Amino acid sequence: MKVAKITKGASLIIYSPLLVETVLFSSSMAEGSGSVSLAEMETAFKKFAVHGDTKATGKEMTGKNFAKLCKDCKVIDGKGVTITDVDIIFSKVKAKSARVITFEQFTQALVELAPKRFKGKSQEEAQQLLYGLIAGKEPANVGVTKAVKAGATDRLTDSSKYTGSHKERFDETGKGKGKAGRQDIPDTSGYSLAEETHARASGTSFHLHSAMANKGPSYGLSREVQSKIDKKYDPELEERLVEWIVAQCGPSAGRPQPGKQGFQTWLKDGCILCELINSLYKDSKPVKRIQNSSMAFKQMELISQFLTAAEKYGVTKTDIFQTVDLWEGKDLAAVQMTLMSLGSLAVTKTDGCYRGDPNWFHRKAQENKRDFTDEQLKEGQSVIGLQMGSNRGASQAGMTGYGRPRQIL
Known about the structure:
Elements: E1 2-3, E2 11-15, E3 20-24, H1 38-49, E4 61-62, H2 63-72, H3 83-93, E5 100-101, H4 103-117, H5 123-134, H6 152-157, H7 164-167, H8 179-182, H9 193-202, H10 220-231, H11 235-249, H12 260-267, H13 271-279, H14 296-313, H15 323-327, H16 332-348, H17 374-381
Antiparallel strand pairs: 1-2, 2-3, 4-5
Family: Belongs to the calponin family. Belongs to the TPPP family.
GO molecular function, one term: actin filament binding
Region (Disordered): 157-190
């Protein structure tokens, strides 16, 4: 059994091949006040254990950090103790399938390293000398470049002197605000701070506003792109789609206010769209549950269910709009295109589910299959296609060479 040191009134670690125990010794067994306590060793152990890993707890140490401790604390001298010795002892004290060691296993490793580092010393004296190398130490950041705050560098790195948009990225203490400092996060609630405060004070419940998201104005290229998208919206097509949806879903669907914003508000919650796709089926309805809700994610979920059902109905992916195109009003022309494609499929199918004027939508091309007999197919094999030319009345009579032959002199 190997016995490690001891401080006055502190714990003594006794190591055996099978067991590591902590035994409390009385102050009469101490050897003086110059010895290193286990508390100091554990502090150094935690500092090196968390080095380079923000998620580390300090209770376990990797082999890489153990090697760094031995290197920074001069345990590795290149003679008695080498990096190879450190790796071998680390593998010896750790658990069989583990990649880390605990503090108890760490102290056991020091017991193995002590006689190698301080040859000619007793086991107890060697351990105390080794503890002295480690106690109070912390990882050295060798090779890390530090910012030199002088002159122009000091001015460029001082956040209190920033102006404009750069100033908004830092708080009063100079700490970065993260994402909140880099972009404007729109308030989609539709309520001002005064309205919300009044509602809370009066005990009135409030919900998300059903209008478009509260986004700031766009400028430059973004404004130009949005303007081109808005010009694709067709008011005449809007009237036709409204008539079809009302005819398909019934008077309970209501009617929107004329204009793009009224059309978007009418369809935004997804309920009418789900009722529309359900009305195109006789028995099995694609959307099982349609529940009106003022919550944003519920509304977008219904829109997503409509889009999935529309794709299964036959609408191509290129004709299907995105959920944000309708819910945020980004591209209502794409919404019109999806409904037009859905109406064309409905009027083409002869299942009796379509309601309304058949002339509202164009019919899609249908298959015109032909059946030919074997005799007709054989006759076709002997026919020379017109793209081959004509062989009627053709002969070589009267044909002469074109031009004079080449004269060789």
